[in-house]
Design brief:
With 106 residues, this protein is mainly alpha-helical. It has helices at residues 2-47, 50-59, 90-99; strands spanning 64-66, 84-86. A two-stranded antiparallel ribbon has the order 1-2.
Length: 106
């Protein structure tokens, strides 16, 4: 009986120790993940000004062109009522076309 009590206490101590370690590890990882998120958000906001986005679109071949509501097939591409939208460069359109369909042999 004494041995059983001793083993039970040891097992409980081990459980408490492991639980504390797990909580510390979780808190540490959560803090690191948040720091990383904050850093990435700051970087993104620093480089995502309207000017740099326009510059990026010009460099990658996007063009601003007028379009009519009738030719708009997908409802999720609604452009807040603006008659202007960015055209997709040919090579991007080709990549998108190639990506559609099964990506691996079954």
């Amino acid at each position: 009986m004494l041995k059983h009590v001793f083993n039970t206490e040891k097992r409980h101590e081990k459980h408490v120790f492991n639980t504390e370690k797990r909580h510390e590890k979780h808190a540490f990882n959560t803090e690191k993940r948040h720091e990383k998120h904050v850093l990435n958000t700051e970087k993104r906001h620093a480089c995502n000004t309207e000017k740099s986005m326009l510059q990026y679109r010009k460099e990658t071949g996007y063009k601003l062109e007028k379009f009519h509501r009738q030719e708009q097939k997908e409802p999720w591409t609604q452009n807040s009522g603006s008659p202007w939208r960015w055209s997709v460069p040919e090579r991007t359109a080709m990549k998108r076309q190639n990506m559609s369909g099964p990506t691996r042999a079954i």
